[in-house]
Amino acid sequence: MIRYILQRLGESAAVIALMSFVIYALIGLMPGDPIDLMINSDPRLTPADAARLRAVYGLDRPLVDRYLSWAAAAIGGDFGNSRLHVRPVLDVMPGFLLNTVKLMGLSFILSVAIAIPAGVIAARRQNSRLDHVINLLCFAGISVPVFWLALMLIILFSVMMPILPASGIASVGGGGGIMDAARHLVLPVATLTIFSVGSYTRFVRAAMIEVLRQDYIRTARAKGAGPSRIVWVHALRNAMIPVVTVIALSFGTLFSGALITETMFAYPGMGKLIYDSIMGNDYNMALVTLLFATAVTLAANLLADLAYAWLDPRISYAAGEGARP
Amino acid sequence: MTAPLLSAEGLFKHFPLRGGLFGRRAGKVHALNGIDFAIWPGRTLALVGESGCGKTTAARAVAGLIRPDAGRLLFRGKDVATASGNDRKSARRAMQMVFQDPYGSLNPRLNVNAIVAEPLVIHGIGDGAARRDRVAEVLAQVGIDPRDGERYPHEFSGGQRQRIAIARALAPEPELIIADEPLSALDVSIQSQVLNLLKDIQAARGLAFLFITHDLAVVDYFADEVAVMYLGHIVERAPRAALFAAPRHPYTRTLLAAAPRPGGGKRRPGAVPAGEVPSPIDPPTGCPFHPRCPRAVSACRETMPILSGGDHAFACHNPEPVP
Amino acid sequence: MTDIVRPTAPPDGMLILFARRFADHRLALASLVVLLALALLAAAAPAAEWLLGVSANSVNLTIRFAPPSLAHPFGTDELGRDLLVRLLYGGRISLAVGIAAALASAVIGTIIGLLAGYYGGKLDALLMRLTDGVIALPLLPLLIVLAAVDLTKIGLPAELARDPDVSLYRMVVIIALVSWTTVARLVRGATLSVREREFVLAAAACGAGPLRIMAVHILPNVVSPIIVATTLSVGNVILLESVLSFLGLGIQPPIASWGNMLTGAQELIWSAPQLVFWPGALIFATVIAFNFLGDGMQDALDPRAITR
User: Fold this and answer.
1) How many domains are contained in chain A?
2) What pTM was computed for the model?
3) Cα–Cα distance between A314 and B211 in angstroms, integer?
4) Is A190 in CB contact (< 8 Å) with chain C?
5) Residues 141-160 of A with CB under 8 A from C
């Protein structure tokens, strides 16, 4: 098992290294390089100046060289400065990260809190009217375009009924306080929750149905356990195995959902940071934040696999290839 | 003495077992341990033995589905592995295979015409019209109405599907048919029909057969020569009559003794071997049969007996006496 | 020779069974109807243009934000263009790009899955690592980067790079590049099981080469899950395209797509919320219809499996 973990960590590290190169190259292909931007802002720069500046910044070196010097600095902990924020990248990130954690954390907890009961109820009353309604709502949740959902919520709660703020994390002009911060979180959290609760509920429902069909449930029933006890104690625990896996695997989509949500609500989190830095040609920031997102998603996948192996003793990763689902 | 159509020399095949961390090998299945046999044109060699003796592996090696670890396969005297592309292709064409499971050996998505025509397509035989004619011809030979060629396999019964499989094997005008237990999955009443079909076809076309089976009654009816296999070794190889009349290897004796005979009656004399067939992963030392052999002597545990004896060859240190 | 034998009575064809089970799934059936209607309407976009006497791109600043009227059944947008006609054309584009990208990713996924499943061994391990790697990437940030790439920097002439038609192909390409993984895994699994079946061995024994085996024997027997997975993926693809177009990185104006009709919609929520509502609602309806459709197909294909 330890060997498996180490192997996976090694692979993940390799993926991140590879991705760093790919992203570095891709970002280099984006419109406008730093020198062009400088020229745009200062028309007095002549082509000769531009060439000289390129040489100074090393922008005329081949891609691999530039990448390697970035990588060398990065390993040493120096990720460069953010152009837009005029500060080292690593100084800027934590604040945004915290905001995103708040947003994603709250939505995640809310989604799971809704999904588990809803999925269980739907599974117990399979094919009943309630089940069909829940299923319909789930489909709606996974089919709605997140950015449009955000717009609709804003229209509903900020325009038509001005009770909630449409953007930011705090009201302009001070005010501060928990209540204010909370009010600003309502719409973004609601958006992200609606986005993810649909798929989580479906997972829980499917897992529960599968488990309820198992023979050992019938055995417990035969032994006289009442229906509620069966459902909540035995089945739920076993249904959690695939649920945990899938939820962790859907971490990546949650991230994408968060990106849009933050951008729509001007919420200063990682998602918005990624978006702004890509669109604003803040190369260092874009590179680091993208890598961070990749690393987090990889970590979530690894944790999901490990949790799956730990929770289900029948799975053994010592058997080499073929054991992974 | 004519030259054999196909000869196998010293075929070895060991399948690695994947196990342990990250696929480290944890033993091997010793499927074939140096077997030799030959098939003459128009004659049938039956390969008999219990499950796990390696007969299916041998059949697949001949058919080219499995590459042996060592040994040679000679078709018309030419080594199939080292032959030129053309020679290899014509060897492939001349050897066609019929499988055990009539439900699995036909592609459910193709109609019968397409299935039977496939060898013709693969080997580039004839054009569209010629192929259609040939397909209709072989279908009729095996007793399937060519008008049903548009239908799909699931519309036919097991026996009919096996006939279609045979038609597919006959289409490219082969010289050798490798039949891997073609009757085992069929109902008993159908078995004799298909067996008779095979016999008729052999007579009509002068085909050679490599017939894999565990059913000695079939061997008695169909085979010219018999080779008995045990744990990847050929332990006895003889013409049919000689084998049935005077088996020399103790294992052959027990096989014959155990075979149900029509009409009931007492068992033929011969001790039933003790224990079960050992696993091909960890075969015994020396002669593979010695743990169960009623005639085992100390030499059997130490050295592997060599197959010898000319036309009626056997591999035993202490063979059954000639009656 | 032996007697000629005829086959036993054929059971119901697979297709009929499938259609019957599918029809039981009312939502899926309804979705099919809805999608066909949408497709027809979208195809009829030029007819609508002609009927109403307007063009999708005719800017008329004097009638901005006009409410619904006979001349403009859905009103006009911020540039005075007829909303209904733009919605219909947008539908064309969104549906076309969605289906094209879904098909393209299915092709990529099928090829990778077939190769991995058939050859096994090192190639399989390599391809599966690749697949896992792509699955593990954060989708939207990556797509944004890919969409933001300046095509002139990879050698495309400037006029071509700015051409809105090129933005269409680009959308299809980059979405296909990241969406093939589900199909690849599915096809690999199905290939692994089909590969062991005897008719594949029979073809190999006949002398069939790998290409023939994969194309004639394996592929037709793995096609049904591919179709279902592809149908289910169209919804996701449409969502991806609309997000990218919304952000201004996808389909470029003046070509209308439902997504880019919403670009800058945040300013409009105060003045003309109906312009925000309609394009998104149509995206919503289309995606949910494709999801129901795919779900119905999945149930019809294998009623015992728990899919929902």
Assistant:
1) 1
2) 0.82
3) 42
4) no
5) 142-148, 151-152, 154-155, 159
DSSP code string of A4-56 = HHHHHHHHHHHHHHHHHHHHHHHHHTSS--HHHHHHHH-TT--HHHHHHHHHH
Interchain pair B122, C217: CB under 8 A = no
Using an 8 Å CB-CB cutoff, list chain C residues near A144. 284, 287-288
Residue with tokens 């449009």: A148
> Which amino acid type is present at position A54?
R
Which residues are within 8 A (CB) of A85 and not within 5 positions of it... i.e. 6 or more apart? A92, A282, A285
ipTM attached to this prediction: 0.83
pLDDT bracket for residue A294 (50, 70, 90): confident
Q: How far is A147 from chain B (nearest CA, A)?
A: 45
Range A196-211 average pLDDT = 84
* Structural domain includes residue A59: no
Give the DSSP H/E element, type plus range, for residue B33.
Answer: strand B25-39
**DSSP states of A87-154 as a string?**
EEHHHHHHHHHHHHHHHHHHHHHHHHHHHHHHHHHHHHTTTSHHHHHHHHHHHHHHHS-HHHHHHHHH
What separation in angstroms does the CA of A85 have from each of A251, A266, B287? 28, 16, 82
CA distance C35 to A243: 32
For residue A113, the enclosing domain spans 90-311
Q: Report if residue A325 sits inside a domain.
A: no
Cα separations (Å) of A186 from A154, A190, C203?
Answer: 11, 6, 62
Q: Which chain A residues are Cβ-neighbours of B23 within 8 angstroms? A: 320-321
φ, ψ for residue B44, nearest 5 deg: -110, 125
Distance from CA of C232 to the nearest CA of B (A): 24
B15-53 as b/e, with b when 16 or more CB fall inside 10 Å?
Answer: beeeeeeeeeeeeebbbbbbbbbbbbebbbbbbbbeebb
Q: Which two tokens stand for residue A41?
A: 């802002």
Name every residue whose Cβ is closer than 8 Å to that of residue B305 and which is 6 or more positions away in sequence.
B287, B315, B316, B317
Provide the CB-side half-sphere exposure for C173 (13 A, CA).
9
Q: Do C2 and B156 touch (CB under 8 A)?
A: no
Token reading at C58: 């005719």
For residue B319, pLDDT over 50 is answered with: yes
Instruction: Indicate the fold that domain C17-52+76-301 takes in CATH.
Output: MetI-like fold (1.10.3720)
The rounded average pLDDT for each run of 10 residues, N- to C-terminus, in chain C (308 residues) is 52 64 75 84 78 72 75 76 84 91 95 93 88 84 86 73 82 92 91 90 89 92 89 92 90 85 80 85 92 85 54
Is residue A292 one of the residues assigned to a domain? yes
Whether the per-residue pLDDT at A251 is higher than 80: the answer is no
Instruction: Name chain B's partners: 3 or more CB pairs within 8 A.
Output: A, C
Between CA C68 and CA C84 the distance in angstroms is 10
Out of B18, B21, B23, closest to residue A3 by CB: B21
| Chain B nearest-CA residue for C5 | B144
Tell me how far the alpha carbon of residue C290 is from its chain's centroid: 9
Q: Give yes or no for A36 touching C (CB within 8 A).
A: no
Token representation of residue A87 = 């500060």
Please say whether the beta carbons of C89 and C56 come within 8 A: yes
Among candidates A3, A7, A320 on the partner chain, residue whose Cβ is nearest the Cβ of B23: A320
Q: State how far the Cα of B32 lies from the Cα of B35, in Å rounded to an integer.
A: 7
Digit-coded pLDDT (tens) for B187-233 = 888 998 999 999 999 999 999 999 999 888 899 999 999 999 988 88
pLDDT digits (tens, 9 = 90+) for A147-176: 999 888 888 888 777 777 777 766 665 556
User: How far lies B21's CA from each of A320, A324, C83, in Å?
Assistant: 5, 13, 63
The sign one gets for the Cα dihedral C78, C80, C83, C89 is negative
Neighbours of C231 (CB within 10 A): 20
Query: How far is residue B117's CA from residue B139's CA, in Å, rounded to a whole number?
Result: 11
Residue A179 belongs to a domain with what CATH number? 1.10.3720.10
